Amino acid sequence: MTETAVRSSPALLAAARLAKTVSGDAIRHNVTVLRSAAGGRRIMAVVKGDAYGLGAPAVGELLVASGVDALAVDTVAEGVALREHGSTAPLLVMDVDVDENAEACARYRLTPAVATVEQVARHEAVAQRRGAPVRVWLRANVGFNRFGPREERDFDAVLDRLRQARPAVLVTGFFAHLSSSAHDAAETVEQAATFASRLERVRAVLGAGVAASLAATHGVLHPAALHGTDWVRPGIGLYGLLVPAGRSLPGWDGSGLHRLRPAVTVRARVLDVVTLTRAEGLGYDRVAAVAPGRRVASVAIGFSRGLAGAPAGFTGLLHGRGCPMVGRPGMDCTQFDVTDAPGARPGDWMTFIGSEPDGRGAARTAQQVAAELNLSLYELLATLRMPVRLDDSVADIR
Ligand SMILES: *Cc1c(COP(=O)(O)O)cnc(C)c1O
Q: Which residues have C-beta atoms less than 6 Å from ligand 1?
């Protein structure tokens, strides 16, 4: 072997131990699938939570290059981070942020959500100070009950305030978030009807040019949630993931969402393999009883990476075998029983989400892992914190 440069960047050193890999090809494919499921509506790609833990700057850039029309985040800080990374895409801050962050919204050309009279006033003040209009999206509460008044008369008061705030504050879009679109068709139809009637009043008061958006990923499975809207706001679907219950929704057949391709792989290296020779257990307080003769691999993933608690059924894949976790995770290392995975040795990659690197076809889905860890899919992606590799055939060619 010829002499190679010594790896010294902390990021590379960390990525040699464990990594999340994101497939650029899968994300591009998923944009196409979602666009067609949404009947060609414009796509605002949701990259909140650091793009669901996959790295918002790189993923956002890839999404924009794949043709999405805008990006959406939860906070002003996330939007500013994308701008500082060079993103020039239209960017909606979907959650209402704190008063003192309103000025930065304008300075970084982020579109804030407003849901109350007080929030309209704060952006009006920013516009007056800057001598330039602020463009906002109005957010309605149709039952999610996180932002904005639930009752119509209070919503009408916000509309009235927006009418007065013109031309300092200009409403370019109107949106709401569905509470149960992954599970409940009847509730979604009801919330879509509330949205439609409010949209009618928004356009009557503020003009017919206000764009509308209701559906996130699972909303696309409900015709009522698409009807009359111009934009969809998918997040998790871009990364190829759906809540399992989505498959039993009435809109599933014909949606084409079965073609979504999982974009995320999570793997960690085996650091050592210990054969237990005594009936004394292992780890702190020797809490895990492991029979003598069992082989246990110490793997480079731990609670500092989000693998917390003592999930009983959690397993990793090695050489085609599911290997159960033993004991509790450590800070940067967790042990798995690899007795049934012959040939397991230090340096092997254990796979937690996705397919094994040796191409034997063994795979674990994010849905399986979320169930084992008792997390939602969304929590799982954001919880596992580790170096991210973008595996991208197009970027490689460039
Ligand atoms: C998170 C979020 C989305 C995207 O939801 P997915 O289920 O990931 O597609 C869309 N809109 C709002 C307001 C959100 O908070």
A: 46, 48, 94, 177, 216-218, 233-237
Write out pLDDT tens, residues 11-39.
999 999 999 999 999 999 999 999 999 99
Structure tokens at 332: 């940067």
Q: Which domain holds residue 105?
A: 23-259
When pLDDT is averaged across residues 182-202 and rounded to a whole number, the result is 97
Q: Return the ∠ at Cα 267 (arms to 265 and 271), rounded to 5°.
A: 175
219 and 278 belong to one structural domain: no
So which residues are the catalytic ones? 48, 284
Residue burial 71-80, b: 16+ Cβ < 10 Å; e: rest: bbbbbbebbb
Q: Check whether the bond before 387 is cis (ω within 30° of 0).
A: no
| Domain membership flag for residue 18 | no
229 closest CA partner among 200, 207, 258 = 200
CA of 48 from ligand 1 middle (Å) equals 8
Q: Read off the pTM.
A: 0.94
3 pLDDT higher than 60: no
Helix pair 152-165, 185-206: axis angle to 10 deg = 30
Looking at residue 281, what is its pLDDT?
Answer: 85
Report the nearest-CA residue for atom 6 of ligand 1: 235
